[in-house]
Structures are given as C-alpha cells and as structure tokens.
Amino acid sequence: MTERLFDDGDRTDLDPFALFEEWFALAQEAEPNDPHAMALATLDENGLPDVRMVLLNRRDTRGFCFFTNFESEKGRQLLANPQAAMVMHWKSLRRQVRMRGPVERVTEAEADEYFASRAKGSRIASATSRQSRPLASRQQMMDEVAALTAMIGDGDMPRPAHWSGFRIVPVSMEFWKDGEFRLHDRVRFTRDGVDAPWSSTRLYP
Q: What is the pTM of this model?
C-alpha cells in the first residue's frame, strides 16, 4: 500500500489504519528495541505542551491505546483535557507516523485484560509507584515494592483503581517517508469526526 500512498493518482480508498499496520509490521522486523514506542504530547492546565515516551499497547480501528497511572501528570492532564498528539519514529526505516485527536478512557474490561497480561513484578511496580510525584530516594521505592511483594506472596496482584488506559481516536494521521536531499514524502489523512470518511493530502516536506 505504500506505493499507492505516495502515488498522487491512486490514493482515494486507502485506509490509514491499514497503512499503519503495514508500516508497524515492518518496524517490528527492523527495530531492535521497542518498535511500539511513541512520543505522546498533552497540555497542562496553563496550555503548556508536555511530551514523553510511552508504549503503544493496543490498537484497532477505534484508535491507539496506552496504559498509565491516572494520577500521573499525563493522566491528570488527559482527564482534564482529553485530546492528544503522538508520533512514532522508526529510525531504521526512516519513517514516522503522526496522529492527533480526542482521547477516551478504555473500558474496565480492557484495562483488566492488559494489566493481567503484564509480569507480576510490573503489576506490583505499577501499584506502588506514585508516578510523577517526588521521591526521596530510590531505596524508598524499592522498600515499598519489597513490602507489597511480601504482602502478596503467591497471591495475585489486582489492578489498582488509579491504573487504566487511554485511547487516542485520531482525526488526523500523517505518514512520512525519508527522501533524498530532504525531499521527503508526506501524506496526511484527515476526517471531520470519528465517524466521518477520510480524505488525504500530500504535503511539502
């Protein structure tokens, strides 16, 4: 589909979600570490942008999901202002995908399913971390993890109420491919709402 993506005469019925799957499959083969890493941008209460790397853990034609502590800075920012932008850059492929749109919370069932799929140590770490808040020392954190680990023993670690996920529902998806002399290829898909059809436009690099 990439050939059609950059063919100005044959792009009318391309699905950006399907294109993303094609590119992501290539990234999984080419990237040695975390092909699902993405930069996530949000806004704080003063309108100042905030950006950090997170992992894309679920995706379908509804949108792109990541999971986090809702009491973290990004969690609080998204609950207050549920819209975001993200970019995935695969250096080895010289490609990137950008998108932005409204954000919604995943369902409790989706959060439970993903949390249960994580290693027990990761679940314990998620439960003990007061993400984004001051920490006196690393030792304090490790002591808290050890205490919870001992308390649970062989039991299960349930998902904390403050830990869940967000889904970015894109209204804009842009595909960028490196070109010689910085004459890159860029095509942006946009739609007026989450149920509207997509249209595409080639952009100057």
A: 0.91
